[in-house]
Amino acid sequence: MADTFELELVSPESLLLSEPVEMVVVPGEEGDFGVLAGHAPVISNIRPGTLAVFEGGSVIQRVFLAGGFAEVTKDRCTILAEGAVPVEDIDRADVEQEIRNLRDDIGAAADDAERTRAEAALGVAEAKLQSIDAPPYAGGH
């Protein structure tokens, strides 16, 4: 078995994952980054995107993250997510309706602050839709 490290995924609602994993790919603010056991310490903001959890060289779980930050040490990766949902639990029709509603909200915004909030929510909803459509990372090359 490959070396493992502890992955902890925490959302405002609960502890979603706490388990040993071989590798994760995190949607960092400056691009996706992989984490393996023994990784150099790093702290990164997370952009809305998909966390991919690997075992045996293949993706075993995909979780949409709405943002947050990750702290990586040589034996742990802790992700504090603004929101998180397994990709397989995302309903395409609900997200498409949310996008339509948010576009209407942007057009009807009473002020810049309201428009900015709606634009940020739209960015998260569009990233969620991309998570549904994106294929998992290919394994083992």
Brief characterization of the structure:
With about 140 residues, this protein is an alpha+beta fold.
Proportion in β-strands:
35-45%
| CATH C-level label of the largest domain | Mainly Beta
Compute the number of structural domains: 2
The profile of the biggest β sheet is: 5 strands, mixed
In angstroms, what separates the terminal alpha carbons?
A: 18 Å
Instruction: Provide the CATH architecture of the largest domain.
Output: Sandwich
Strand order of the largest sheet: 2-1-9-8-5
Q: Estimate the helix proportion, in percent.
A: 25-40%
Structure class = alpha+beta
CATH superfamily of the largest domain: F0F1 ATP synthase delta/epsilon subunit, N-terminal
Count the E strands.
Answer: 10
**Silhouette:** elongated
| Cα gyration radius (Å) | 16 Å
H and E order: EEEEEEEEEEHH
* Tally of helical runs: 2
Kindly report the CATH topology of the largest domain.
ATP Synthase, domain 1
Low-confidence stretches: none
Mean of all residue-level pLDDT scores:
91
List descriptors.
ATP Synthase, domain 1, single chain, 141 residues, elongated, 2 helices, alpha+beta, 5-stranded antiparallel β-sheet, 2 domains
